[in-house]
């Protein structure tokens, strides 16, 4: 994509957000569109694939705080875009290459931070071949169950994204051929031209500032050196991963430009809740129903863990809601730390009673009629007033 295209496109509209949207809103919009337009979800749909590429391109700019700042500065300066042949502003025929082609001394001095932007757009400052640029980071999602999150898991992925063309290995040239030095700029990537009393250097339009021209393009990538492909990956999810946590795979993102390193792949993990166990950090939680006699008289309970079962001694007179700790039965971390199992005792009240049970409860109520379980409740309320 040329510098003119970089400025002329409305990346905010591509993502369906306003230009003052927060970083979180931009990420949310991108993730929603990426899921809807992903080639795996739209097999054979070329329109969806084109939109997927456009959305990824837009997020690569406005999803990066530094690039977004530069993009916003340029759009503010030039009124949101350019038209072929010149800027459609006050003059009507102002050629933006007059500014973009200036050396760092004039562009940087006149526009502050935009001097860096202009240098970044054309990947040079004062001449020379295009500079390497790190590839963009990529994010995908996986869902695992509760036990896999606690113990760790190996998850296979199929990632469809831009990647270095396997046929030409990123050169853009057909195998057996090599890019040729641009005859227009002599490999400098810049051409000089005069306008009135001024002389300017601007990126060569024939080689787009690269200094080389692919005369025999690769049939698979069309000379771009990058192709969209689906590749299998195996992701190791560490033990103890939490819901919404991201796993970073270095160098598995989009390929870099001109020999730069690739971006990273971030895998966002979604954990399906367990029907019995909960989690609080490294501790597992479990609610166990008990009867009133078990709490009043004491008992021994057999409760499940993720691996087996354990026996718990409930002392006589234990209250409902009491939490018992089973050490070492929680989440094990790679550093050796292991959480506990927290068992909460809850009195289970029967919905119906037969005659014998009702008579027994009535006899108990009569035997304990002199006991008031709320002796200080009213006094405490009055005192709080």
UniProtKB/TrEMBL annotation:
<dbReference type="InterPro" id="IPR002939">
    <property type="entry name" value="DnaJ_C"/>
</dbReference>
<feature type="binding site">
    <location>
        <position position="204"/>
    </location>
    <ligand>
        <name>Zn(2+) 2</name>
    </ligand>
</feature>
<feature type="binding site">
    <location>
        <position position="221"/>
    </location>
    <ligand>
        <name>Zn(2+) 1</name>
    </ligand>
</feature>
<feature type="repeat" description="CXXCXGXG motif">
    <location>
        <begin position="182"/>
        <end position="189"/>
    </location>
</feature>
<feature type="binding site">
    <location>
        <position position="218"/>
    </location>
    <ligand>
        <name>Zn(2+) 1</name>
    </ligand>
</feature>
<keyword id="KW-0677">Repeat</keyword>
<keyword id="KW-0346">Stress response</keyword>
<dbReference type="InterPro" id="IPR001623">
    <property type="entry name" value="DnaJ_domain"/>
</dbReference>
<feature type="repeat" description="CXXCXGXG motif">
    <location>
        <begin position="165"/>
        <end position="172"/>
    </location>
</feature>
<feature type="zinc finger region" description="CR-type">
    <location>
        <begin position="152"/>
        <end position="230"/>
    </location>
</feature>
<dbReference type="InterPro" id="IPR012724">
    <property type="entry name" value="DnaJ"/>
</dbReference>
<comment type="similarity">
    <text>Belongs to the DnaJ family.</text>
</comment>
<dbReference type="GO" id="GO:0009408">
    <property type="term" value="P:response to heat"/>
</dbReference>
<feature type="binding site">
    <location>
        <position position="165"/>
    </location>
    <ligand>
        <name>Zn(2+) 1</name>
    </ligand>
</feature>
<feature type="binding site">
    <location>
        <position position="182"/>
    </location>
    <ligand>
        <name>Zn(2+) 2</name>
    </ligand>
</feature>
<dbReference type="GO" id="GO:0031072">
    <property type="term" value="F:heat shock protein binding"/>
</dbReference>
<dbReference type="Pfam" id="PF01556">
    <property type="entry name" value="DnaJ_C"/>
</dbReference>
<feature type="domain" description="CR-type">
    <location>
        <begin position="152"/>
        <end position="230"/>
    </location>
</feature>
<keyword id="KW-0479">Metal-binding</keyword>
<dbReference type="GO" id="GO:0008270">
    <property type="term" value="F:zinc ion binding"/>
</dbReference>
<feature type="repeat" description="CXXCXGXG motif">
    <location>
        <begin position="204"/>
        <end position="211"/>
    </location>
</feature>
<keyword id="KW-0963">Cytoplasm</keyword>
<feature type="domain" description="J">
    <location>
        <begin position="10"/>
        <end position="75"/>
    </location>
</feature>
<dbReference type="GO" id="GO:0042026">
    <property type="term" value="P:protein refolding"/>
</dbReference>
<dbReference type="Pfam" id="PF00684">
    <property type="entry name" value="DnaJ_CXXCXGXG"/>
</dbReference>
<dbReference type="InterPro" id="IPR036410">
    <property type="entry name" value="HSP_DnaJ_Cys-rich_dom_sf"/>
</dbReference>
<feature type="binding site">
    <location>
        <position position="185"/>
    </location>
    <ligand>
        <name>Zn(2+) 2</name>
    </ligand>
</feature>
<comment type="subunit">
    <text>Homodimer.</text>
</comment>
<protein>
    <recommendedName>
        <fullName>Chaperone protein DnaJ</fullName>
    </recommendedName>
</protein>
<comment type="function">
    <text>Participates actively in the response to hyperosmotic and heat shock by preventing the aggregation of stress-denatured proteins and by disaggregating proteins, also in an autonomous, DnaK-independent fashion. Unfolded proteins bind initially to DnaJ; upon interaction with the DnaJ-bound protein, DnaK hydrolyzes its bound ATP, resulting in the formation of a stable complex. GrpE releases ADP from DnaK; ATP binding to DnaK triggers the release of the substrate protein, thus completing the reaction cycle.</text>
</comment>
<dbReference type="InterPro" id="IPR036869">
    <property type="entry name" value="J_dom_sf"/>
</dbReference>
<dbReference type="InterPro" id="IPR008971">
    <property type="entry name" value="HSP40/DnaJ_pept-bd"/>
</dbReference>
<dbReference type="GO" id="GO:0005524">
    <property type="term" value="F:ATP binding"/>
</dbReference>
<dbReference type="GO" id="GO:0051082">
    <property type="term" value="F:unfolded protein binding"/>
</dbReference>
<keyword id="KW-0862">Zinc</keyword>
<dbReference type="Pfam" id="PF00226">
    <property type="entry name" value="DnaJ"/>
</dbReference>
<keyword id="KW-0235">DNA replication</keyword>
<dbReference type="InterPro" id="IPR001305">
    <property type="entry name" value="HSP_DnaJ_Cys-rich_dom"/>
</dbReference>
<feature type="binding site">
    <location>
        <position position="207"/>
    </location>
    <ligand>
        <name>Zn(2+) 2</name>
    </ligand>
</feature>
<keyword id="KW-0863">Zinc-finger</keyword>
<feature type="repeat" description="CXXCXGXG motif">
    <location>
        <begin position="218"/>
        <end position="225"/>
    </location>
</feature>
<dbReference type="GO" id="GO:0005737">
    <property type="term" value="C:cytoplasm"/>
</dbReference>
């Amino acid at each position: 994509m040329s510098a003119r295209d970089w400025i002329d496109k409305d990346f905010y509209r591509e993502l369906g957000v306003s230009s003052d949207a927060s970083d979180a809103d931009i990420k949310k919009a991108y993730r929603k569109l990426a899921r809807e337009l992903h080639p795996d979800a739209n097999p054979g749909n070329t329109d969806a694939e084109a939109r997927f590429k456009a959305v990824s391109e837009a997020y690569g700019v406005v999803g990066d705080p530094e690039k977004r700042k530069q993009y916003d500065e340029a759009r503010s300066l030039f009124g949101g875009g350019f038209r072929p042949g010149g800027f459609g502003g006050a003059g009507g025929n102002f050629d933006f290459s007059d500014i973009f082609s200036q050396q760092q001394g004039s562009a940087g001095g006149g526009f502050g931070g935009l001097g860096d932007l202009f240098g970044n757009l054309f990947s040079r400052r004062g001449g020379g071949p295009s500079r390497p640029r790190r590839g963009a980071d990529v994010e995908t999602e996986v869902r695992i169950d509760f036990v896999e999150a606690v113990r760790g898991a190996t998850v296979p992925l199929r990632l469809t994204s831009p990647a270095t063309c396997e046929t030409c290995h990123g050169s853009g040239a057909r195998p057996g051929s090599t890019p040729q030095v641009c005859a227009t700029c002599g490999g400098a990537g810049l051409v000089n031209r005069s306008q009135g009393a001024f002389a300017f250097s601007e990126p060569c339009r024939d080689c787009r500032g690269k200094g080389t021209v692919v005369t025999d393009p690769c049939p698979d990538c069309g000379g771009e050196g990058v192709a969209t492909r689906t590749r299998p990956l195996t992701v190791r999810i560490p033990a103890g991963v939490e819901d919404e946590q991201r796993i970073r795979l270095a160098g598995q993102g989009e390929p870099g430009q001109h020999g730069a390193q690739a971006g990273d792949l971030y895998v966002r993990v979604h954990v399906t809740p367990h029907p019995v166990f909960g989690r609080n950090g490294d501790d597992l939680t479990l609610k166990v129903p008990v009867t009133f006699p078990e709490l009043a008289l004491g008992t021994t309970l057999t409760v499940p863990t993720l691996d087996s079962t354990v026996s718990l001694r409930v002392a006589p007179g234990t209250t409902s809601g009491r939490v018992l700790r089973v050490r070492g039965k929680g989440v094990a971390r790679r550093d050796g730390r292991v959480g506990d199992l927290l068992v909460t005792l809850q009195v289970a009240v029967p919905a119906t009673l037969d005659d014998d049970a009702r008579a027994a409860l009535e006899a108990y109520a009569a035997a304990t009629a002199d006991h008031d379980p709320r002796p200080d409740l009213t006094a405490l309320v009055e005192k709080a007033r």
